[in-house]
Amino acid sequence: MERTTVEKVSLWVKHAKVFNSYLKKFEEADVAVKGERFYYIDRKRELSFEAAEVLDAQGKYMIPGFIDIHMHIESSMITPLAMAECLAANGVTTIVSEPHEMANVKGVRGVEEMIRAGKDAPIDIYYGIPSSVPSTSEELETTGGVIDFPAMKGLLDHREVACVGEVMNYRQVIRENHLEISKFLDYVRAKRPDLPVEGHCPSLEDLELARFLYLGIDADHTEHDLEEVRQRLENGMFFEIQDKMLKPEILAYIRENNLYEYCAFVTDDTMADSLIEEGHLNAVVEKAVAFGFPLEQAVYCATYTPARRMHLTNRGAIAPGKLADFQLLEDVRHFCPALVFKSGRQIYRKGEKAERKSGYEFPRDFYESVRITDEQIQSLFAIKAPKDEGKVTVRVIENFPDCTQTHERLVEMPVRNGRICWQESGCILGAVFERHGKNHTVGIGFFSGSCHGEGTVATTYCHDHHNLLVAGDDPEDMASAVRRIVEMQGGYVVIKDGRILAELPLPVGGILSDHPAKEIGAKLKQVRLAMESLGYVHENPIMSFSCLGLPVSPELKLTNFGLIDVKNRRRVSLTVS
Amino acid sequence: MERTTVEKVSLWVKHAKVFNSYLKKFEEADVAVKGERFYYIDRKRELSFEAAEVLDAQGKYMIPGFIDIHMHIESSMITPLAMAECLAANGVTTIVSEPHEMANVKGVRGVEEMIRAGKDAPIDIYYGIPSSVPSTSEELETTGGVIDFPAMKGLLDHREVACVGEVMNYRQVIRENHLEISKFLDYVRAKRPDLPVEGHCPSLEDLELARFLYLGIDADHTEHDLEEVRQRLENGMFFEIQDKMLKPEILAYIRENNLYEYCAFVTDDTMADSLIEEGHLNAVVEKAVAFGFPLEQAVYCATYTPARRMHLTNRGAIAPGKLADFQLLEDVRHFCPALVFKSGRQIYRKGEKAERKSGYEFPRDFYESVRITDEQIQSLFAIKAPKDEGKVTVRVIENFPDCTQTHERLVEMPVRNGRICWQESGCILGAVFERHGKNHTVGIGFFSGSCHGEGTVATTYCHDHHNLLVAGDDPEDMASAVRRIVEMQGGYVVIKDGRILAELPLPVGGILSDHPAKEIGAKLKQVRLAMESLGYVHENPIMSFSCLGLPVSPELKLTNFGLIDVKNRRRVSLTVS
Fold first, then answer.
1. Do the bridges between strand B570-572 and strand B562-565 make them parallel or antiparallel, or are there none, so unpaired?
2. CB count in 10 Å sphere of residue B157
3. ipTM of the predicted structure?
4. So what's the pLDDT on residue A360?
């Protein structure tokens, strides 16, 4: 066929199987890109362009870049730039990240620096406004920063803000309360009713679910059974499907009721090592397809519906005028892109090393955020009892291999010279050191169950306050671990008999590293293996350990103020009188 | 079944067949409303509320209030408050109106006063930013106001603004140009990429259509054949379905490809009399269902998809947290609501007279907008020829009964004493008087074809510049008609043999009345019948006449600068030399 050259374009992709998001099918076509945006989808393949770059797709599948609208960069413990580099390689070209971890460390500045840190990224990074910082209150945990109502309001001015981040205290907000987030939700409904508000409401049902929706919180990404999923979708809640939710009965329900328009795939939290080994949103899509989610709908729910949910209406489809964010795939059972383009520019080619973006550095104080006194460390060596001699009944945090929730277990321990002799109890000692320099408190507790039975593990990655958590069988090793973490200014360390088995420095706010993801992933894996070698039994020991200090997840947790009875939202004493 | 009273709500609707927008089906349920928003959809009908108002729906159908996202209030020649009252009675609870008519008369102030005028309305009125005022340029027509780039930018600050109004000069914007709207589109893409931009692009196809979409203009509501509709939907253009587009082959295409998500019903222009006699968006929905559009999808495309298109995500469904905008229907073949609620408050009950909202008055100068000089009127009595005696060939505007486009027809007319003797030519005399007080120009032309062959018709409702258009067979009557219009400060008048056959005062900016819609509808109908009695042949003589001065609709039109050759965008002389 004779073709007439019509005009200049920047990129001309020829011979592709192009995904049409509206018809939900693949079409043989040539695609012209002009600058940042798609220009023309030539389904008849009859026009010719004078292109600065011609790309022969050789029949490859061309789909939009993936869009992950519910995730937390900090979960991967790397900085936005390093994260973006990884995401590009996995075909993800837009994310909405909620930086509540950094907000817990550095408050509004933490959020703003995360935004700044992502500005030069090869992909587009949008943010959710952290709505639950601290996760409970300043009476139950000490955080480095607090995001109150004025702070949330102020964050609305950033054009990178796409939504209100997940409202996590879901049982509180639906009752009479004076929470900062409730004031903010009132404000958003009145002034910005178009702004999406992300939710977090596992097990909420019926009238309680309606009360949550009534506040304008209309998405959920947590884990559910079919009945809960059904109630969410029928009541207009946007359903964000994470990996764990790819259950046959849920997929069948979505398919039978044609509910794809109200669903999107998300990752929520991705550990650095699984990011390197398994991938990201592409892994969720791949699993969904393998489990029977129709291919075209799976691509749709990873591109079009998430863009629309966040009102990022200038992307999510290969169509004239949309941002030229796309990936070329050899086959559509494995979402490992051969090439990835963002806004018309190539950002990844399989087998080629990515050009590392740099330039941004977090402010100095972000690298000096772990402050522990000697006096705090000394508290490991003498656990005071309420009596001088005899026995005490101690509240112990019982840990389980299949969840991050804990139980309270009562254990008798001997007392000598006014100190608890815990060493023979079968429990390990735990401590949370306030490290933001606010009150130098130390919370003391004991762990049993599926945690490591010997050796020491310590980290500043301790949800959500990110104080320093250490747990072990030997106070000397524990003190060394704390000192090592202070030296690294944050991270993980695993010690046994005075020897460091594994460590991962996280010097940015004590929770992130600015090294490449691959290096972090490898080191995190070493930490994981070391924890397992000490007897830690959990599908994700890193996550399990980091949640031992999370005072919103039941039942008994440890913060810098000591033991927290989560259900009753109060501190409780170490010993039962 | 025993019910437990759980709490106080403001309204409790019992025994309704409630439309579920997500499952696209009706469900037996009770619905609790708390203040402005839906609170709980009780599908099990097991809860009891202490309700300030209990409404027994007696099995009626309960559907969301209709949402019309592409319409122009001024087309109905009534003010926003009167319009809202009518819309409420038709089940329409939210509209997005584009006030480019008032903008042509009063510029930015016209837009702002329309916004202000709608603030107390019983329904929600949002606005599009007029993007084509004037429709051509100040060389081809004189308007009362101009909306340039800074003006458009300024209008973005109004929270009632939901979109950029239809970009009408579609052939110009896709070419190299210096249009104000092009500057504004660049700005919107850079700064507000989430803002919907409405289009207007009849017959645009293939690469030209892509060029239009490439600018970020991604909706169209104009008339098309199936191929054009197909191209729009496949390329991601939102398809706004007006009455005329309810063709079997188009409905079949949407159904077979399940494209409901990318469609919404709209009205665009509704004449005051058909508003009273036939209804509004409800009439379009009713016709669609009658023509085979599935009922549930028809309701969906008149509620959910239009809300989402405009990012009015707090409405469009009966679900917890959404605005309680709903209507109760006896049956779903006839969309004549028995009751209509907006934000939880009743705004219409069949058979009850609506309480008239008032309070708002347009500023004084809006009632003093028709300024014509005696000298202008005198020009009707002597149509100058380029010679003293003999014959001239005159360009005549040939009008047709089935469209608003015209042709140029050449007619020979005798000349005496330097004046054209047109009276025996079979043509009528036409004149457009600049009436905004800017340059007092008069454009002279002749009409033939399907216009009235005798008598005089005059109006200030003359697209889009809204200067005073008069056409007739007798200069004396024509002068009287002009004087009468000036007395009324705008409107329509039909005169025969010195006698007024019908008239409609439109004193607000010369294009609207602040009287009730019913009165305006009745008077407009009289004008329509009077025009027909004078021989005007058209399916809509009002629209046909008002478009004789519209210089964007081909081929030959009349403005205050005389004849305009629309295709070549230039003035042409009355006589051919």
1. antiparallel
2. 7
3. 0.95
4. 86
Q: Given B22, B207, B236, which is nearest A322 (Cβ)? A: B236
How many angstroms away from the CA of B254 is the closest CA of chain A?
10
Q: What is the CA radius of gyration of chain B?
A: 25
DSSP codes joined into one string, B471-490: EES-HHHHHHHHHHHHHHTS
Q: Alpha carbon A193 to chain centroid distance? A: 26
Rounded distance between C-alpha atoms, residue B29 and residue B39, angstroms: 13
Q: Cβ contact (<8 Å) for A314 and B234?
A: no
Element (H, E) at A85: helix A80-89
Indicate the Cα dihedral angle B126, B129, B135, B136, nearest 10°: 180
**CB distance B303 to B67 below 8 Å:** yes
Q: What is the pLDDT of residue B455?
A: 98
Residues pairing with A13 in the sheet: A31, A55
Residue B99 has pLDDT above 80, yes or no: yes
- Tell me the CA distances in angstroms from A387 to A26, A134, A383, A429, A431, one per residue in order: 75, 35, 12, 19, 21
A384 has a pLDDT exceeding 70: yes
Contact of B162 with chain A, judged by CB distance below 8 Å, is answered with no
The H or E element spanning position A175 is none
Nearest to B321 among A213, A312, A320 (CB): A213
Q: What is the pLDDT of residue A169?
A: 87
Q: Chain B contact for A11, CB < 8 A?
A: no
Amino acid of residue A407: H
Q: Half-sphere exposure of residue B86, counting CA atoms within 13 Å on the CB side?
A: 29
A29: contact with B, CB 8 A cutoff: no
Distances (CA, A) of A221 to A218, A224, A300, A472: 10, 9, 18, 34
Q: DSSP readout, A212-271?
A: HHHTT--EE-S---HHHHHHHHHTT-EEEE-GGG--HHHHHHHHHTT-GGGEEE--B---
Q: Which residue from B minimizes the CA distance to A305?
A: B261
Q: For A537-571, give one letter per residue: b (16+ CB within 10 A) or e.
A: bbeebbbbbbbbbbbbbbebbbbbbbbbbbeebee
Strand partners, A448: A398
Q: What is the C-alpha separation between A220 and B411, in angstroms, rounded?
A: 72
**Segment B352-381 mean pLDDT:** 90
User: Over 80: is that where the pLDDT of A6 sits?
Assistant: no
Cα gap B451→B542, rounded to integer Å: 11
Q: How far is A33 from chain B (nearest CA, A)?
A: 10
DSSP H helices in A118-205: 149-155, 170-173, 180-191
> Who's near B407: CB < 8 A, 6+ residues apart?
B397, B398, B400, B555, B556
Q: Residue B553 — pLDDT band, cuts 50, 70, 90? A: confident
A236–B319 C-beta distance less than 8 A: yes
B359 touches chain A (CB under 8 A): no
Contact A18, A26 (CB under 8 A): yes
Structure tokens of B181? 């709207």
Show the DSSP H helices in B489-548 as ranges. Answer: 517-533, 541-546
User: Which position has the token pair 């790309």?
Assistant: A55
Interface contact flag, B236 A321, Cβ < 8 Å:
yes
Nearest chain B residue (CA) to A255 = B23
pLDDT tens-digit map of B535-550: 999 999 999 999 999 9
Residue B358: which pLDDT band, with cuts at 50, 70 and 90?
Answer: low
Asked if B194 and A314 come within 8 Å (Cβ–Cβ), the reply is yes
Going by pLDDT thresholds of 50, 70 and 90, the confidence category of residue A356 is low
Q: Which residue of B has its CA nearest to A258?
A: B23
